[in-house]
Amino acid sequence: MTSTITLISGAARGLGLETARRLSALGHTVLVGARDPERGRAVAEEVRGRWVALDVGDADSVTAAARDVAAHEGRVDVLINNAGITGPLKSAADLTGEDALGVFQVNVLGIVRMTHAFLPLLREAADPRVVNVTSGLGSQTLTHDPERVEHSVVSPLYTSSKAAVKMLTTQYARGVEGVRFNAADPGYTATDLNRHTGTQTVTEGSDAIVALATEEAVAGTGRAVDRHVPLPW
After folding, report:
1. H or E stretch including 218?
2. CA-to-CA distance for 161 and 81, rounded, in angstroms?
3. Which of 140, 28, 7, 17 is CA-nearest to residue 75?
4. N or C: which end of the chain has fewer CB within 10 A?
5. What 3-state class would DSSP assign to 39?
6. How far apart are CA 184 and CA 133, in angstroms?
7. What does pTM read for this prediction?
């Protein structure tokens, strides 16, 4: 039986790295998508996978990465769009259009680029699936609930980009036949993105990602979930 080939963007650290470790332990062949060659190669060696040079914010880099995988593996069974940035630490009133462009370039356009470039390789798989990493901060329900940690965060660009990721996921699920698209909310996890202030470990944060990457096809498509329940809009 051939190994499941899984490509993870932003796999050099944080949630991407932990997801790579866990899926490798489950028998996946992990392709470590990362910009930094030294770090990417080190992680690939750790998870017994292969480093793929990848910057989702750069269209040429994404195209080159797809060509690389086509030449070496010939298919992708699981595509995990994990790479993301928070954007500049500014007050809402000081944010500019250029700030927004930088965040959406990675968090939203990056997913569109990756989907377009890797769809032919996904179609070579028997059960292709895409996991997009979103956030509860992209949920209107959670950000309006004063009992939730999401309510206390004011980050217009990051939150709106993650709301867009949820909608992209459901629309791709409806518009692309034969490929499952689902979104994972890691929850408030201690990573570089939040200066390790999160209350969950990266293992807990990667639970939803790993679950979506390994579940059976009957589980369905077009969903957004955290490690416990469906994620509300």
Report:
1. none
2. 13
3. 7
4. N
5. helix
6. 5
7. 0.95
200 pLDDT band (50/70/90 cuts)? low
Tokens in use for 222?
């077009």
The residue type of 174 is: R
- 3-state SS class at 95: coil
Share of the chain above pLDDT 90, in %: 87
Side chain identity, residue 42? A
Who's near 114: CB < 8 A, 6+ residues apart?
Answer: 9, 56, 62, 79, 81
Label residues 214-226 b or e (16+ Cβ within 10 Å = b).
beeeeeebebbbb
SS3 of 126, please? coil
Nearby residues of 185 by Cβ (< 8 Å), 6 or more positions away = 134, 135, 136, 139, 208, 224, 225, 226, 231
Tokens of 149: 């940690």
- With residue 193 as reference, give the H or E element that holds it: none
pLDDT tens-digit map of 130-183:
999 999 999 999 999 999 988 999 999 999 999 999 999 999 999 999 999 999
List of long-range contacts for 72-75, beta carbons under 8 Å, 24+ apart: 73/5, 73/29, 73/31, 73/121, 74/121, 74/124, 75/5, 75/121, 75/122, 75/124, 75/125
The whole-chain average pLDDT of the chain stands at 94
From CA 60, how far away is CA 73, in angstroms rounded? 20
Q: For strand 50-53 and strand 29-34, is the pairing parallel, antiparallel, or unpaired?
A: parallel
Q: At what angle do helices 14-25 and 37-46 cross, to 10 degrees?
A: 30
Amino acid symbol at 154: V
